[in-house]
Design a protein that fits this description.
With 739 residues, the protein is α/β, with parallel strands linked by helices. It contains 27 helices and 21 strands.
Length: 739
């Protein structure tokens, strides 16, 4: 968040650079820092205290590290080599210590002279380099270093106070060089315009922005760091929430057609034919959605639901309400398998109500059409005509719905399934097909902690379905350690046979398809047997299906399903599995969302450690959908102590998707949460932690909503406007706009 013109001065300029041109170039290319403001907002990752040394025992292999330590001894060796045959080669070995562990530094050739003079026993310095192993000992080869002088009370050169900031650095630019660059521009911090309204800052006892910047880069005490963090977290939370509040405010200014269902129409007829009653959760969420649909501004609602909580039914009732009110509804699904599955389940649930205008169709009925990229020309023409004339009230499709040729008679509601699979442009393109902005319902089965929903989907109102419908069965999950206990894996296949013998079916999921051609270069680069075990390719559907068919599942009907099959073949495989003709379906994650086969009771996930937490939770939700309890077996060869195994243990220990999403988030970088992948921009979060700072985010959202309601254009807050401009460069603006 660059804050003012003074801070927008580029670090690199044709005539006069703020920093040396080489330093400015590395900062731009490797750290994304272009202006004085960028550099002031590149905060230290941690602080070293002089007198307290780094734990050398904890250094990570193959990573670029900065350590503060003391020289224990230094020895110069001469040796003969091809370059120095007469024994004139020189190698300086320096051992540094933190009082408990030791680390060797090594310098060669002409590079030994300066360190030989400077790195005398007892000298304290910061060292930066890549950690490697030589002769079974950790070492840094040719590290960069910076001496720390003035232990006797003089000011330490260019390091104020006793706390040394350690910056996120790169191999091309050490932490202390970044520190020196920050010291050069730090006087500009005095000119930083404050984005927080004075009343908010004073009411919460937060320090002013210039003071916070000074304290985070030149702290004299830990209290200084705490003050700076408290203030800068508020900046990040508040500016982002103001951006989202302005989006919500702008949306309330847009016109939309209010869609109110008629009392004895299609929705009432549909409800009458449901063979079960809705859960209280489904009724509550439906009320929220219907209230939004009845307003003359577009609904923007996120529907989060646990796997199998009946989101599709809630969405279908909303779609039928819109059809009742004279509009059309479109559901956008991320894959053809899922679009076909939704189309099948919607037409089954609606029965003759889905045959409007056809012989035998119900009087209140409407047409439900499917539109995917692989449909034949004739079927496609017919579907397009039904949409353009309004004959079809409901359409379910993939991104084929977005193409220019697709015209709607009166699009009133867009339902987007599995939001995280869609590029934001795709959603917008579909929304643009209404004469006025249609209402929007976004569904996800990946539970999102409340704070993340407020941060990432902050421009959408949120509804949560956390109650499973009656008739859903519990799912037992277990980790199968295939390498430590191979007999556990043999037992897993026995369990599959037992379930099939009882008349049930099974899924086996693999990370890869297996029809990729082997790359000869990759084959040539094969390493030792140890490396092979560590880095073997993930198990593949085609190989596993073949092995199971000939081995442990011999005699059972085994079929495969993956994304590169022809759409008709995929559909045929799914139909056979749904009809109970196939015993075991070996598949990739194409079955991850929406696939509903109540008779499937067991799932074996091979190489489960190669999947993310939320993905495993999604996959597991494909079993236990009927009256019989489900079983999910997570097969992994990772050792018991590994982080991957701990992740699998967490998935096995709870069925609570919200709890798992917290675990998932804590294990990932914060930036992923804010959709860096979608926005392509650096995350705007430097000090705010989405999970830990829940209170700040919630309070910032309230403050932002009140502020924007009173002053939507922020006329009285120039500092906040400037901060918003910096946050919302074009890419981010687009990302926030779409969701």
């Amino acid at each position: 968040m660059d804050l003012v013109p003074a801070l927008q001065e580029p670090l690199k300029q044709p005539l006069k650079s703020v920093l040396g041109p080489a330093t400015a170039k590395v900062m731009a290319e490797h750290l994304g820092l272009h202006t004085v403001g960028d550099l002031l907002h590149h905060y230290p990752r941690r602080y070293e205290e002089r007198g307290q040394l780094t734990h050398l025992a904890d250094l990570p292999m193959d990573e670029h590290v900065t350590v503060v330590a003391q020289v224990a001894d230094a020895r110069l060796h001469t040796f003969a080599s091809a370059r120095a045959p007469r024994g004139k080669g020189q190698r300086l070995e320096v051992t540094i210590t933190d009082g408990s562990g030791r680390l060797q530094l090594v310098f060669f050739g002409h590079g030994v002279h300066k360190p030989h003079k400077e790195l005398l026993p007892g000298t304290r310095a910061m060292f930066a380099g890549k950690v490697s192993v030589f002769n079974r000992r950790l070492q840094l080869a040719h590290p960069a270093y910076e001496l720390l002088k003035g232990e006797d009370g003089e000011a330490v050169e260019s390091w104020a106070g006793a706390l040394i900031p350690m910056y996120p650095a790169t191999a091309k630019l050490e932490s202390w060089k970044i520190g020196k660059a920050v010291q050069t521009v730090l006087p500009s911090a005095q000119e930083a315009l404050d984005p927080l309204p004075e009343s908010l800052r004073a009411g919460r006892g937060l320090v002013a922005l210039p003071e916070a910047l000074l304290k985070i880069h030149r702290p004299h005490s830990k209290a200084d760091i705490a003050d700076a963090h408290a203030r800068l977290k508020w900046d990040e939370a508040f500016v982002l929430q103001v951006a989202l509040a302005r989006r919500r405010h702008a949306d309330t200014q847009l016109p939309a057609v209010a869609r109110v269902p008629v009392p004895d129409g299609l929705l009432a007829a549909f409800d009458d034919r449901l063979p079960f009653t809705l859960t209280e959760g489904q009724r509550k969420v439906s009320r929220e959605i219907f209230a939004d649909l009845a307003t003359e501004h577009p609904m923007h609602r996120l529907l989060q639901g646990e796997v199998g909580s009946g989101k599709t039914l809630v969405a279908l009732r909303a779609m039928l309400a819109v059809v009742d009110a004279g509009g059309q509804a479109a559901m956008l699904a991320p894959t053809e398998v899922l679009a076909q599955q939704h189309h099948r389940s919607v037409t089954e649930m609606m029965g003759e109500l889905a045959e409007g205008g056809m012989l035998g169709g119900a009087e209140h009925g409407t047409k439900v059409v499917l539109l995917t990229g692989s449909m034949g020309a004739a079927a496609r023409r017919k579907a397009l005509l039904d949409l353009a004339t309004g004959e079809a009230g409901v359409v379910i499709g993939t991104h084929a719905l977005i193409e220019d040729k697709v015209q709607f008679h009166d699009l009133g509601l867009v339902v987007v399934d599995e939001q995280h699979r869609f590029g934001v442009e795709q959603r917008d393109a579909l929304r643009g097909k209404g004469r006025q902005p249609p209402h929007l319902l976004v569904m996800t089965a990946t539970p999102i902690p409340r704070t993340v929903a407020m941060t990432v989907f902050g421009d959408l109102e949120t509804s949560v379905l956390d109650q499973l419908p009656a008739g859903r069965s519990p799912i037992a999950s277990h980790v199968v350690p295939a390498a430590d206990k191979p007999h556990f894996l043999a037992r897993a296949w026995e369990r599959v046979r037992e379930e099939v013998a009882k008349g049930h079916q099974a899924y086996v999921v693999c990370p890869r398809i297996g029809d990729e051609e082997d790359d000869p270069k990759k084959a040539a680069a094969k390493k030792s047997a140890e490396d092979e075990a560590e880095k073997r390719p993930p198990l593949a559907v085609l190989e596993v299906a073949d092995r199971l068919g000939k081995g442990p599942l011999h005699g059972l009907k085994v079929e495969v399903l993956h994304g590169r099959m022809q759409p008709d073949d995929k559909d045929a495989v799914m139909r056979r599995f749904a009809a109970g003709e196939t015993d075991v379906l070996v598949a990739t994650t194409v079955i991850e969302v929406g696939v509903n086969v109540p008779n499937a009771t067991v799932m074996v996930i091979m190489d489960a450690d190669r999947f993310g937490v939320s993905q495993l939770h999604q996959l597991r939700g494909r079993v236990g959908r009927g009256a019989v309890p489900g079983l999910c077996l997570l097969v992994s060869e990772m050792p018991e102590a590994s982080a991957a195994r701990q992740r699998l243990n967490a998935v096995a220990s709870t069925l609570d998707g919200f709890e798992l999403s917290r675990i998932d988030l804590e294990q990932r970088r914060e930036g992923d949460v804010l959709g860096q992948a979608q926005s392509g921009a650096r995350s705007s979060l430097r000090v705010l932690a989405v999970i830990d700072d829940e209170e700040i985010i919630a309070e910032a959202r309230e403050e932002a909503a009140a502020l924007v309601a009173a002053d939507p254009d922020l006329e009285h807050l120039p500092g906040l406007r400037t901060a918003l401009d910096a946050l919302l460069d074009e890419e981010r603006e687009q990302y926030l706009e779409k969701g």
